[in-house]
User: Fold this.
Amino acid sequence: MKLSTRTIVAIGIGAAVFLVLNRFVAIPSGIPNTTINTAYAFLAFMAVLFGPIAGALIGFIGHALTDATYGSVWWSWVIVSAVVGFVIGLAARKINVEDGEFNKKEILTFNLYQIVANLIGWGLIAPVLDILIYAEPSNKVFTQGITAGIANIVTIAILGTAFLAIYARSRVKPGSLRKE
Assistant:
């Protein structure tokens, strides 16, 4: 696997933006240590533009850096951010916003991928890893995971879909320009 210079730069910038959004544009959810984050809408956007490897690395690096600013990295959730970025990035094979297309079919595909990624990641993987790695109580971690998953699904459905729609509208559709 060889990543282009463009993708490597996108990973670096993406991780930095993820950190800033995660750290400074987060809304308390009412559940301890669980917030509603715009960072996941941005992660989904970048994952669709640059693919699953970039999505995984942006989620992993961005989340690890965010946690490090608080003093300790919560690896179970860092891993899930990578998984979510990777799975949503798989949608890039079915959605080509570079061609200026992001209609009902693409919106549905994008949202199916992100819903599956968030349900599996936050509803299953994060709580199980919290129990296995940190010996956290199951009722606590499943509540946190499900809250984070639902918040991410809604945030991505609204903001992620809007980001991709706006981006697609900025692209020139193939064959739309002709020489006169």
User: Anything to note?
Assistant: The CA atoms of residues 16 and 170 lie 24 Å apart. The first helix runs from residue 5 to 24. Helices lie at 5-24, 39-50, 52-70, 75-89, 104-134, 138-170. The first strand starts at residue 26 and ends at 28.
